[in-house]
Amino acid sequence: MFNFIKILLLSILSSFFILNNSIAVAQSEFSQQDLERMSIFISKILEVQAIHSYRVNDMELSDILYFAVEHNLYNNYNTRIKSCNRKFDQGKCKEIEVSYLYETIKKYFDINVVFNSDLYIMDGMKYYFTGHSYQFPDFGNEIGVRGVVKTASRLSGNRILLKGDAIYIPKNSINAAFEAVIRPHRWNGQDTYALISIKWIRY
Fold first, then answer.
1. What is the pLDDT of residues 131-185, one digit of tens each?
2. Where are the domains of the chain?
3. 91 alpha carbon, distance to own chain's centre
4. What is the CATH class of 30-46+143-200?
């Protein structure tokens, strides 16, 4: 009887340690450094605030164009954005080469698109295609937003589910929660991520 109880206790302890170890592995699946890298990536998505919830494969071409233009306005204004002479009712005329837009789209979405015509962006604003660039009105940058990834978990198909907060940079206050699905992506010789979908949860 004593041996039976001893074996039973050992079995229970063994199961406990296996379960505890499995939980530890799951919790350490992504390091703090991984979460910080994911936060940097998702911040580049969240900063284009006018587009809130979408799946990349379902996006209209005009929304993809808008994302790429806005991303470059925020991050590459002095190197990629040029002034132009087209007259707009509001905002000064700015111009960007299409090649830069393709680069941005490939880097963050890992998709290929073709721009070859004028496109209407939100509220009927027209972006003019010149054959090698787009010309558009510059209204100035919105308030900056950064993303903080709180949790990351693996999904099927090499996908990763991110959950976290979108934070207004000036006030360091939470603007929204978000959920995003990304996947590992190799771009320009570096390991990064590509966005699959994102959803803002609240305001």
1. 999 999 987 666 688 999 999 999 999 999 999 999 988 778 887 899 999 999 9
2. 30-46+143-200, 58-138
3. 27
4. alpha beta
